Amino acid sequence: MSTDASSSDANATQILVCAADAVQEGGKGVRFPVTAGGDDGTGFVVRYQGIVYGYLNRCAHVPIELDWAEGEFFESSGLYLMCSTHGAIYVPDSGFCAGGPCRGGRLRPITVVERDQHIYWQPDDYVRPARA
Ligand code: FES
């Protein structure tokens, strides 16, 4: 389902996540499959103050997924991302933990790019494309 797309950075692979309008301000996030440190996992994108942010979907407290229902990352105020398991909250634009058992921790950022009405993510040394 992923599609490689050309990039202005000749060496950077960018993989399609979804259409840009699928990720609304403070709304549901969109998940995408990755391998992280060799393990299968997911990343996600959310929109906060107009900008799209991407993170590995792995809590800094216990390394499990954050969303209680698929794509539900924001808590009710829309100001923080929240882990559904023990309520850790994270600042959407930095991934830093702002409260809960993850204190001092941070979500692992994933580089994302919004262009031509689509959102792409960019693999790095740790977060790689999902196994076929
Ligand atoms: S696993 Fe996320 S707060 Fe405990």
From TrEMBL:
Keywords: 2Fe-2S, Iron, Iron-sulfur, Metal-binding
Gene3D superfamilies: Rieske [2Fe-2S] iron-sulphur domain
SUPFAM superfamilies: ISP domain
All residue ranges annotated as the Rieske domain in the record: 15-121
InterPro entries for this protein: Rieske_2Fe-2S (IPR017941), Rieske_2Fe-2S_sf (IPR036922)
Any GO molecular function: 2 iron, 2 sulfur cluster binding
Protein name: Rieske 2Fe-2S domain-containing protein
Species annotation: Rugamonas brunnea
